[in-house]
């Protein structure tokens, strides 16, 4: 499955620090069941995570922040893109290594004949290489993933929303061809393939941070605003 980036992962920590140096506040959080957030991890849950993101955006908007960008890595990339397709109030989206073909990558995690097995038992327990239990995939959560229409949501993002997709050419979790699909269907889209980078951008952290920062940094406006930027 797609790996979830926790808020204390180095990718987001480095980017948040770079944004702060540029005078932009950054708020990092874990979706329910990830990292330090309460709740159970859900295998699909894409729409719920977009709704959770909506709650975060609404809260900071009420606190008089200008929300200038949303950034997500891996499954988080899918969440920010889905948000942009549903709500048209954030004009910059950065999708880092999101998966376009959600029907792929499932067998590698759940094993062969996963559809038959999950229909028989109602769930599949996922374990790591050492055999330790990680999480349970229910038939409902699997259906949620398979029913999420990435093509439709990509085409539903408004032209006024600038989207950057960054993907590593050597990504071992989500193939780089997925990035090409986002580029083909999102109306206002920039694509950058980081040559040699894996899913975690090991050894390419600075390049990733620079790409995202340059895309996010507020562009000069004719009229200045006193509202803080987030």
From TrEMBL:
InterPro entries named among the record's database cross-references: AB_hydrolase_fold (IPR029058), Hydrolase_4 (IPR022742)
Q: Tell me where in this chain the Serine aminopeptidase S33 domain is found.
A: 14-158
Instruction: Identify the domain of life.
Output: Eukaryota
List, alphabetically, the Pfam families matched: Hydrolase_4
Residues spanning the membrane: none
Q: What protein name is recorded for this chain?
A: Serine aminopeptidase S33 domain-containing protein
Organism field? Aegilops tauschii subsp. strangulata
Q: What is the lineage of its organism?
A: Eukaryota, Viridiplantae, Streptophyta, Embryophyta, Tracheophyta
């Amino acid at each position: 499955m797609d790996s979830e980036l926790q808020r204390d992962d180095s990718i987001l920590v480095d980017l948040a620090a770079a944004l702060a140096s540029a005078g932009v506040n950054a708020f990092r959080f874990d979706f329910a069941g990830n990292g330090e957030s309460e709740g159970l991890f859900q295998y699909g849950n894409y729409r719920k995570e977009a709704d959770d993101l909506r709650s975060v955006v609404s809260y900071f908007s009420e606190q008089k922040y200008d929300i200038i960008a949303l950034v997500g890595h891996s499954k988080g990339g899918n969440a920010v893109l889905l948000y942009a397709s549903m709500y048209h109030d954030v004009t910059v989206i950065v999708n880092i290594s999101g998966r376009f073909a959600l029907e792929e990558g499932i067998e590698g995690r759940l094993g062969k004949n996963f559809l038959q097995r999950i229909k028989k038992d109602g769930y599949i327990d996922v374990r790591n290489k050492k055999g330790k239990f990680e999480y349970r995939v229910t038939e409902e959560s699997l259906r949620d993933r398979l029913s999420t229409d990435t093509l439709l949501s990509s085409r539903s993002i408004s032209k006024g929303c600038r989207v950057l997709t960054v993907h590593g050419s050597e990504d071992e979790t989500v193939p780089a061809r997925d990035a090409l699909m986002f580029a083909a269907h999102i109306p206002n889209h920039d694509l950058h393939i980081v040559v040699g980078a894996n899913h975690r951008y090991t050894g390419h952290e600075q390049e990733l941070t620079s790409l995202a920062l340059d895309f996010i940094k507020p562009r000069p406006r004719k009229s200045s605003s006193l509202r803080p930027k987030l």
